[in-house]
Design goal:
Largest interface: A-B, 45 and 46 residues
Radius of gyration of chain A: 20 Å
Oligomer: homodimer
Number of helices of chain A: 9
Structural class of chain A: mainly alpha
Number of strands of chain A: 0
Shape of chain A: elongated
Strand content of chain A: under 5%
Largest sheet of chain A: none
DNA sequence: ACACAGTACGACCGATCGTGCTATCTTGTC
DNA sequence: GACAAGATAGCACGATCGGTCGTACTGTGT
């Protein structure tokens, strides 16, 4: 879009930097105000850029929202998924849950997990925005599932483990931790989730009982 | 507010009926648009009442939102909690989860559980509205906890059962079912939650393994 | 030197927002 | 039937919404 197609042609960096700044602010704002509540005006004054300056980078509000979702995705991948990929098998599965919980606990984003907020907000409203959010959620489930399958193959989980149900449970626990933590401002909820996760996983360890 | 202080004066019923109609519509609308996205104008055209006709019943938008939360609470109590109270102990605990899942699956409200949506929306925004939602969520956890305690006392759960963690897990599972169902429009997710709930409960039955 | 693409601005549009104020019906009480 | 009060509509307000102008500054390529 912004490239001219000419290989020798260099792109000025100012615009890209402003755009990134706008989008990073948009992600943070959207976790509090929602993707819909995030208005161009508020985003403009939050970034110090004029309203039309903001608008210059996007075709429409929906375009801005889609770009915000994409930015939130890369942030999630960098902060939650990739760090956990340094481990393998069961350790990776545990690391994924744990890094999600820290990502919430550390208030990386002021309103907690971006996708949890977006899923709740857009759930009942079909459209390209909801589709992108749903896709990202499926990807996250996919990452958890792959890790669980690998752990099972390694013999770190019972051979009769129902991976889909296990992953459903783990995801439910971390999301509930997110919602509870944000709603009640209580870090104890995160620890409750840690306890629950440990319990669920210990129930599926190979020589349990 | 609406009473004049004169004891002999009776109130006309029309207003109350209209108000109830407005609030019931508001609850449904809020599960899709959010409590903030719900505007007086949209609510007016959805009910067939004029904008000022809607406004006549409330002091401010926040007042309307608080009344909407209260209406959603009674609806939740009537549809989810009370039916389950016909059973006792472990059966009640199971009935609570199941009636919550049906309440979501039957699309009693178009956008799923009102409080799940409200919690996600208001989580990062302190204020009386969030406080009321948080209170209702605590009450729900309380109902689950009482049922679990009773089941434990009856010997239907292991004596070493950590009730708080068990309740956290059950709540997480039904909320995740709600979010997933609304986001992906897939009833299979409700069944996945049923499977997970059965597994969690079977792991805490007295003579397991 | 000059044209042009990229970047950002202020002004403005019609629509809708929440919120008042007033007029007009309707209804129960005397 | 008069009258007070409840219920609702009509209308208008300032603010903000998403979105479109025209414009001006700044580098880069020819």
């Amino acid at each position: 879009m912004t490239t001219t197609g000419n290989a020798t042609r260099r792109t000025r960096t100012d615009g890209e930097r402003t755009k990134r700044h706008i989008l990073e602010t948009a992600v943070r704002l959207a976790t509090i105000e929602g993707l819909d509540g995030l208005s161009i005006g508020k985003l403009a004054s939050a970034t110090g850029v004029s309203k039309s300056g903001v608008y210059a980078h996007f075709d429409s509000k929906e375009d801005l929202q889609l770009a915000t979702v994409e930015t939130a995705r890369t942030l999630f991948v960098d902060d939650v998924v990739l760090p956990a990929f340094e481990a393998d098998g069961l350790k990776r599965l545990i690391a994924l849950c744990e890094s999600f919980l820290s990502y919430v606990e550390n208030r990386t984003l002021p309103g907690g997990c971006f996708f949890a907020a977006a899923a709740a907000e857009l759930g009942g409203r079909p459209g390209p925005l909801r589709e992108r959010v749903a896709e990202n959620q499926r990807d996250w489930i996919g990452v958890l599932t792959e890790a669980a399958e690998a752990a099972k193959d390694k013999g770190q989980l019972r051979t009769d483990t129902d991976v889909a149900t296990l992953v459903f449970e783990l995801n439910a626990l971390v999301i509930a931790a997110n919602t509870g933590f944000i709603l009640h401002d209580d870090p104890a909820i995160i620890d409750q989730a840690r306890t629950a996760i440990a319990r669920v996983l210990s129930a599926t360890r190979p020589n349990a009982d």
